[in-house]
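Quick one: structure tokens for this chain, please?
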Amino acid sequence: QVQLVESGGGLVQPGGSLRLSCAGSGSIFRFNAMGWFRQAPGKQRELVARLSIRGSTNYTDSVKGRFTLSRDNAKNTVWLQMNSLKPEDTAVYYCAAQRPGEYEYAYWGQGTQVTVSS
């Protein structure tokens, strides 16, 4: 059974930074891609950032230039560095894994709360 465990959320002031981590129970190279999603109260879940198996990254427009994906192959971990945080970044952030040949993300972490507030 695949397990994804997120950590690193918390309360931060506007303009601050957080780094989220997503640790997989096995090699992340089993997956076609790893994604970070977020869901704010009353809003739909959105894909924030995606890291493909080949290392290419994609970001939603609202976080471009502020969020950065990286991975640690040895630790089967993906990181999401979030800088210049804004109140509108407040949400529960989820890590997810996409299996080869599939569009939907099959595996999900439990989520970590990020709150940006003064």
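The two ends are 40 Å apart (CA to CA).
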